[in-house]
Write a structure and sequence with these properties.
The protein contains 16 helices and nine strands. It is an alpha/beta fold. α3 packs across α4, α4 runs antiparallel to α13 and α9 crosses α12.
Length: 369
Amino acid sequence: MFSEELEKYDWEETTKAISSKTEEDVIRALGKENLDVEDFMALVSPAAIPYIEQMAQLSMKYTQERFGKTISMYIPLYLSNACNNFCVYCGFNHNNNITRTTLNDSQIEAECKAIRKLGPFENILFVTGEHPGVAGVDYLENALKIARPYFNNMSIEVMPLKSEDYYRLTKVGLNGVVCFQETYNKKRYKVYHPQGMKSIFDWRVNGFDRMGQAGVHKIGMGVLIGLEDWRTDVVMMARHLRYLQKHYWKTRYSVNFPRMRPSESGYQPNVTMTDKELAQITFAFRIFDHDVDISYSTRENPIFRANMMKLGVTSMSAGSKTEPGGYTSTPEALEQFHVSDERSPKEVTDDIRKLGYEVVWKDWDKVFD
């Protein structure tokens, strides 16, 4: 399990190693075809800042070689905001006095139909809070069965599950799983997740192993930018990615770097990341791994997303509603976070095509399940 591998790496020592990288280290990394984590450290270090333009050009080159001039589209569907966790930064925090909503069968199908009217989406991401009594495996299995006639590619972003539960869901059409570790700083993890299953660091970080063991086709990873030093967190994630690729080499992988957005919690980020810094880690990840899917959600603003689409990003969401029932009504349930890109799917896809890129709605088919 990765929790054992992670014990080899000290957070403070990793932070020092990143800050010690030199201009020579950056130049060496940019000259290599196949990078290791030490090279990745150089590219996310302060020493790489003067080389951002060179990194952007190299990132664009590798992206177009592997993915062409395409952007895959997906859309989230929030099934429930019920949650037993107490994450201090999240609008779904158990202590927050908000209306809790869990969609029933007819509501799930209505949301699916509403999404299909927004555009020819085939990649759907089901999202819930972490409440096994309300949105457990039985509920998720049922939701996947309801949605199956409408979408070819179905993923979930829910509580970490047992390996056998992931396998069970693959049998009804589950294609991918997205999970955010939030931060790899084990000493500080409990500060942000004081209670609930999410407070158990090893259970969460080893969830990716359980996905791989279950044969999940695609695994999405991410850290939440705003909690701890982002450079150290993304280096830990790069180590995690390499570990997973070694052990579960048949699986595809994606990475995401969501910056904290306002939520009902009122939590203020400990650290902030500029657009230039987000661009830096995006380029660094593309140069580090030519095959990984890099995803930007509607947390990011339209202009920035358009610029990054040409330089390394390969998938985007559009028209996102981050509250249960958001596509069929004006719900009472609170959204998990406020979106920054409020364009409709048509507006997003029109803008993508104007930039000379092709929109990919479907990259998986039922026949492959």
